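Researcher: Sequence recovery benchmark, item below. Answer with residues only.
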């Protein structure tokens, strides 16, 4: 029995280290210490989606940030495939700021695993570690500005 417990502990520790290493490569979290990344993993859920499965629908209320651990997703508007995102990308980030309606439908373009961070858990994290929260929100604002700039270039001029 004790050997099983030790092996399970080693596996969990190794899995946590891999997840920390993964989150470090996500731009939103790249400048955070390992302890904070471990806390983020602790408040997140890991969910599997089959190819073609809808993750969320346009018009639904957003309450979750999604981070792609494996696979690929596609964003759709009016039934048209408008973008793809891959490992290390994230979407639904505005849900961490407000529970607004989703502007696109997101589907699994292939089988994928996603980390889910719910707004309510993220709010609790912010209360516990406001300094890390400021870094994440600053990174979020920077990435949102980049995306807005790209959209302007693509559709406006």
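Model:
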């Amino acid at each position: 029995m004790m050997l099983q417990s030790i092996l399970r502990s080693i596996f969990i520790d190794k899995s946590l280290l891999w997840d920390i290493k993964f989150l470090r490569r996500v731009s939103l979290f790249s400048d955070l210490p390992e302890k904070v990344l471990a806390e983020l993993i602790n408040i997140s859920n890991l969910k599997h989606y089959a190819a073609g499965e809808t993750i969320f629908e346009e018009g639904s209320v957003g309450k979750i940030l999604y981070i792609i651990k494996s696979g690929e997703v596609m964003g759709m508007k009016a039934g048209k495939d408008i973008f793809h995102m891959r490992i290390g990308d994230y979407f639904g980030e505005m849900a961490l700021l407000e529970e607004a309606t989703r502007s696109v439908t997101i589907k699994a373009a292939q089988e994928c695993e996603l980390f889910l961070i719910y707004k309510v858990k993220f709010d609790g994290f912010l209360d516990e570690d406001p300094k890390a929260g400021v870094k994440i929100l600053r990174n979020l604002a920077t990435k949102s500005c980049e995306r807005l700039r790209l959209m302007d270039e693509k559709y406006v001029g």
